[in-house]
Amino acid sequence: xxxxxxxxxxxxxxxxxxxxxxxxxxxxxxxxxxxxxxxxxxxxxxxxxxxxxxxxxxxxxxxxxxxxxxxxxxxxxxxxxxxxxxxxxxxxxxxxxxxxxxxxxxxxxxxxxxxxxxxxxxxxxxxxxxxxxxxxxxxxxxxxxxxxxxxxxxxxxxxxxxxxxxxxxxxxxxxxxxxxxxxxxxxxxxxxxxxxxxxxxxxxxxxxxxxxxxxxxxxxxxxxxxxxxxxxxxxxxxxxxxxxxxxxxxxxxxxxxxxx
Length: 260
Prior knowledge:
Blueprint: E1 2-4, H1 9-18, E2 23-27, H2 36-39, E3 48-49, H3 65-71, E4 85-88, E5 91-92, E6 95-98, H4 107-123, H5 129-133, H6 137-143, H7 148-171, H8 174-177, H9 179-197, H10 199-204, H11 210-221, H12 237-259
Parallel strand pairs: 2-6
Antiparallel strand pairs: 1-2, 3-5, 4-6
Helix pairs in contact: 1-4, 4-7, 4-9, 6-12, 7-11, 7-12, 9-11
């Protein structure tokens, strides 16, 4: 299911700078979550595997089935919200996996996605929002007045935004060391600007639901795009520093204001 991917010189330069041991692979099929038996095929390409699991008490009773399975003992790679590139440190060395769905995307953008994943691996951040929120995921679930799948989407987005606050600090330094990737990062941000600025109106008109709006706004954080309220409160050093606790407080205040 997996094979080593040939890297452009730009991505290889980032890999050498940030995470020289990481292996970048291609998957021969798209996935949200790779079935455990197929995920274990990674063992042929890495030195060892060490599946992660999480305490069941971190989950609300109505958590989506896939999240419950993820928290269990099965070897799980990839979850909804990962996008076109997934990565894991459950293997030694860590791996980045790119999915076939990127076919047809501009080469520069694909290179940026791969470089972004390498940087995320190097930062030591959790590889899923459950490792970010931990037992505070129950508090987030209480605060978010949405169904379990939409709550999952909001949690995934909030985690993505928190990671983006850290990765963009790296991307902003790339103009000289990795100019092609810096250009791709800036171009992707430019393409998001109009959609992000229209979010409050789109939500008010019912054209975009709150979970989708949160996902788009938080995805924009890594591109240093100005966010509208209530998402602007997430583009702060306070969120970067206080993480899950801040995210839960933001959700409580945001949903309280929506109900007024």
